[in-house]
Specification:
Helices cover 29% and strands 14% of the residues. It is built from three helices and five strands. Helix 2 runs parallel beside helix 3. The termini are far apart.
Length: 150
């Protein structure tokens, strides 16, 4: 069984063979893609430079700051020992920040009541609005025999 695309009377085929045309177009397309220069878009950004100078004062965290009192009645700001006057300055700086960072207060159970009271008075005078006590679980054994000194 023979297949033929033309007529039986020997006339030429009237349809154009598009396969070579498509091959030529694909080769031209590939050559066009190869010869296009690579576009590089550079965005100039001034990156911050690391400051190697030592920090004399504890940093004020824009999210939360921890004010604590140790068992030896030392007031700490984010882990660094400070005076109550420095605490006043730090609280004034945090009060002016938008949004105001949270102040977490954690006195040691063995710290003196007077130190805690004075620190709370400084906090109250600064009119801090985001304030909370943390570490309350350490007072769970309050007044029990295991806490009594020997």
């Amino acid at each position: 069984m023979a297949m033929s695309g033309g007529s039986d009377d020997g006339e030429p085929m009237m349809e154009m063979n598009t396969t070579p045309l498509i091959d030529v177009l694909l080769v031209l397309l590939i050559m066009f893609i190869i010869t296009i220069p690579v576009q590089t878009h550079a965005v100039k950004i001034d990156l911050p430079v690391a400051d190697d100078s030592p920090q004399d004062q504890p940093l004020i965290d824009p999210v939360k700051n921890r004010l604590g009192i140790t068992a030896t009645n030392q007031v700490t700001w984010n882990g660094s020992e400070v005076t109550l006057n420095q605490v006043k300055q730090y609280l004034a700086q945090t009060k002016s920040m938008v949004p105001e960072p949270e102040l977490q207060f954690q006195p040691d159970p063995l710290s003196a009541y007077l130190t805690t009271d004075r620190t709370l008075a400084v906090i109250k005078d600064s009119q801090v609005t985001k304030f909370g006590f943390v570490g309350n679980e350490q007072y769970g054994s309050f007044n029990k025999a295991s806490r009594l000194p020997n």
